[in-house]
Amino acid sequence: MRRYVLPGIICLFLALPVFGQSGTALDSPPFRPMSPRIWGQGGGYTAIAEGYESLFTNPAGYALESGKKGRSITLMGLNSWFYTRPDYVLPFTYQLSQGADLADSVDIITDQITAGGFGIGTSAGMGYVGNGLGLGFITVLDSYLYGQSLLGAEGEIHATFAFIGGLAFSFQMGGSTLYLGGDVRPMLRMYAPIENSAVLGMLTSLVQGGSILSALNDEPSYSGIGLAVDVGALLTYRGLSFGLSMRDIGGTSFKYHTGTYGEDFGGLLSARLPEGGPIDTLAVTPMDLSIGLAYNPVMSKLGWLIDPSVYVEVQDITGAVRENRSFWTMLHGGTEVKLLSFFNLRAGISQGYLTFGGGFKLLILDLNAAIFTRELGLYSGDRPNTGIAIEAALRF
Q1: Is residue 134 left, alpha or beta, with left meaning phi > 0 and alpha meaning psi from -120 to 50?
Q2: What is the dihedral of CA 131, 337, 387, 252, to 10 degrees?
Q3: How far, in Å, CA of 42 to CA of 38, rounded?
């Protein structure tokens, strides 16, 4: 079987230019949970993909050895993130801990909306990665509000349910090893654009002590299914690793039907999925091409004490070309230092901004956190959005 895999994937890479989508009515964001392990070290992972994170970065990592037995099993991973400046989190949390109403924090939220954007997101998932197999089920809920003034603010909310299934194979090439992998990713996605009138309604409801989301009940939303295909490659030689990933090959189409926020998103609270209806809108997640280079020196006898790695990545090359973004918005780099085999320190530069993070693993409990900034504009400094991400997982 392996002798057909390499030629097949090469042919697929060569055929990519013929794929494409046009005439879409909506843009759809990539499937990318805000992992603190990734963002703590600069936001890239293509050349160092392994374990649970390879399910949404580079499928070639399914064949890498992860964990003590060559595999990584995540029984449950919970991520939460906040698009807000770290110095705003403590005042906001303190007010809530003292029993203050959310209305008392409206000034903090307003400042964030106009400064760089404000939002909250969460993801939950489980997965198995190892021995060339990658399987996972991950849900992501993400929201974001932004405007140069409160009167002009708008935003969006996305909810995605994804199953990931893929295979990867390794090939010995002299002193190096080539890993090739691919997966399919069926998804159910719900999307609700938040117009300015809805933002003002949310803030009014907040000040009056009502439900902040009730103002969205009658706003339009979209729901539909899509099928993504991802491929990736890793070439390792001693401590060096070169990675390439192509995600959402050809653009992943979502055929949406129109409903309301109250019907689609409100139903999630009672574990009820959208009922469906006539397809009237098309959305596409564009293809993402990323390349990376990493180095993990062999520490021999000191490996149990300290295990450093560094990497650099050029991310979403196709998106930058399509949107005419600056090269610096594609550039990510960072380092992770493992201490005593269970404690991690991370730092990096993402699109021109510093990121920091850390974590530790005790038995099967894996905890991670990161502070990061992402660039949502066309060049570094255009529209920076700072955030905090935390994770708690049961993993072995």
Answers
A1: beta
A2: -30
A3: 7
What are the Cα distances from residue 321, in Å, to 132, 172, 272? 33, 34, 40
Dihedral of alpha carbons 359, 159, 153, 91, sign: negative
The Cα–Cα gap between 283 and 73 comes to 33
Query: Can you name the residues that pair with 137 across neighbouring β-strands?
Result: 126, 163
Q: What is the dihedral of CA 248, 291, 243, 369, to 10 degrees?
A: -80
AA letter at 71: R
Give mean pLDDT, residues 264-268. Answer: 74
pLDDT range class, residue 249, cuts 50, 70, 90: very high
Query: Per the structure, how many domains does the chain have?
Result: 1
Q: Are 201 and 30 in contact (CB under 8 A)?
A: no
Is residue 23 over pLDDT 60? Answer: no
**CATH code for the domain in which residue 185 is found:** 2.40.160
Give the Å distances, CA to CA, from 23 to 282, 283, 320: 9, 9, 20
Question: Dihedrals φ, ψ of 226, to 5°?
Answer: -145, 160
Tell me the residue type at 370: A
Q: Model pTM?
A: 0.87
Average pLDDT, the chain: 86
Of 98, 36, 35, nearest to 346 by C-alpha is 36
Domain span at residue 37 reads 2-395
